Amino acid sequence: MKISIVGAGSIGLLLGSFLAEAGIDVTFLVMRKEQASLIRKKGICRINADRTESVSTVHVTTDMKQLLKTDICIVAVKYTGVQRVLDQFKQAGVHTPILFIQNGIAHMDLVYTTDFPDIAFATVEHGALRIDDRTVSHNGIGRLTIAVGRGNAKHFELFSRAHSDAFPVHWHADAEHILMRKVFINCMINPLTAILKVKNGELITDPHCNKLFKALYVELADAFTGEQWLPSYENVADVCRNTARNQSSMLSDCLTGCPMEIETIVTAVIQKAETMDAELLLLSTLEAMLLAVDGKGGKL
Amino acid sequence: MKISIVGAGSIGLLLGSFLAEAGIDVTFLVMRKEQASLIRKKGICRINADRTESVSTVHVTTDMKQLLKTDICIVAVKYTGVQRVLDQFKQAGVHTPILFIQNGIAHMDLVYTTDFPDIAFATVEHGALRIDDRTVSHNGIGRLTIAVGRGNAKHFELFSRAHSDAFPVHWHADAEHILMRKVFINCMINPLTAILKVKNGELITDPHCNKLFKALYVELADAFTGEQWLPSYENVADVCRNTARNQSSMLSDCLTGCPMEIETIVTAVIQKAETMDAELLLLSTLEAMLLAVDGKGGKL
To answer: Is B247 on the interface with A (CB under 8 A)?
Structure first.
């Protein structure tokens, strides 16, 4: 079986590394020729928790047409790149099953408007930090949870082959469930940590941070009350405790001046709540604050 | 006439400098002996807009009893120091007229519970930056506005002697009016600039900052609708425009890790609104955020 992966960022490299180790033939599609030639020459590298390095040989191309030869495709670019990839797939005549791995929920509607027959979505709970164009550091073991959105589930079964203690693969029946649960937790942790410049654990241990954190939970839980995917307060607090010393992705982006994923994590949830006639005042305030600081890197 | 000034911070030094230049006999009461001996030896220094230095000779003491010999006293310590000064006045038997110059409104109730017969309050709109123990930089000309709270207004008239183009002295009939107007503007500018790490002008020019700034105005103006002292949106926006390149005091404190004046500027206004049955949700969110970052200097 052949799998292609569009995008060789932290998540693309991490998945490619574990899939290749499971004996699956992996082809990366990347945009930059330097990255292609580096990966072609040296393979991809995963730094494990024990600081050992796992290097895998993979194919790599910058030509979308090469994806026609693979059985399944993983789209592992950020949300802002999804529309471009979908357009290129259409142009190149790609119609393989596709697994989408993006943060947030904004890509879901986008993907459902296409006519690709077999679509699945996944959430990733691994800690993964991109070190360079071919190297990812595996900073925490989490789950890859996959849910088939439409089409034939059988096409996606090969991911189970890569299941291991270091790379657990789980399945869920409802794609919206896993994406909403993940984005809910992201909404709880990312904006507050980015605005207050605190690590995840402080949302629980600092009384002033925790007051805001609890107020945000009440607002969100109230808006989405009764939803199957709604995590309890303790579920979300446990995520903060388990990642206490981590910087959230939005905080990291905020400090380095990289664009934060405001639209797909925060704006999409506000809009989702609006369709249910709920107004998220606190989250909207956080959204406005994030937009005000986005890309500045904390500089005056 | 003899005036004593308790506290030789930026505002104390600025006022002392202009009063001494007007021929008034000025005595500073300070806590640290090093500051006392430095001021005694070298006088106090004001750096003017044209970079010239104005040095004045003043008296200085660390002994509260010396204030018994002065005709009027200015309390120019931060709000958090007012209670201590009042206790010391009582112990030393000081009962001169007192002018209070603090940010916010929290000191007003505190002062009215005492039995000092002659009390006045002032707001300062000058830009003043403390350079060292004896030097203040006069960064912007504003007004000293004085309102007598109770007692005999005649006692305070000597301040008019210091009136000049560089140091305009104005009078107002209502102390609460001038303090509330000032604290309203502080509430509009300080918390947002500190949380978003922006200069005053960006509250108007950056569309995302301005959205929050306008929402805050609507919330505050709604709570205090009908009050004589309520500034218009354009009044507040003009303050931001006129001080566009300045860092607000809260932003400066936030960046350096100094305690911000949250209680007297923000909490006091929230409590004032509560007495009028108005809930300030956005300002309360900002208060919680300020408390969460207070004293950290933006460090993780």
So the answer is: yes
* Whole-number pLDDT of residue A151: 96
Q: What's the pLDDT score for residue B299?
A: 75
pLDDT in tens, B60-89: 999 998 888 899 999 999 999 999 999 999
CA distance B295 to chain A (A): 12
Amino acid at A179: L
Q: How many CB atoms lie within 10 A of CB A270?
A: 18
Rounded to two decimals, the ipTM of the complex is 0.85
User: Radius of gyration of chain B from Cα atoms?
Assistant: 19
- Residue B281 to residues B138, B180, B219, Cα–Cα distance (Å): 36, 19, 8
Query: How, if at all, do strands A127-132 and A135-140 pair?
Result: antiparallel
Instruction: Please answer yes or no on whether A292 and B209 come within 8 Å at the CB atom.
Output: yes
Task: Look at residue B237 and tell me whether its pLDDT is greater than 80.
Answer: yes
Task: Give the full edge-to-edge strand order of the sheet including B98-100.
Answer: B59-61, B25-29, B2-6, B72-75, B98-100, B119-124, B144-150, B169-172
CA distance A56 to B74: 75
Give the SS3 label for residue B9: coil
Q: What are phi and psi of A32, to 5 degrees?
A: -95, 130
CA gap A137, A128 in Å, rounded: 6
Q: Quote the Cα angle for B112-B113-B118, to 5°.
A: 45
Question: Contact B158/B212 with Cβ under 8 angstroms?
Answer: no
Give chain A positions within 8 Å (CB) of B206: 292
Coil, strand, or helix at residue B199?
Answer: coil
Asked if A215 contacts A285 with a C-beta cutoff of 8 angstroms, the reply is no
In the chain, the amino acid numbered B134 is R
Residue of B nearest to A208 (CA): B292
- HEC string of A180-203 equals HHHHHHHHHHHHHHHHHCCCCCHH
**B140 CB burial (10 A radius; 0-12, 13-18, 19+):** middle
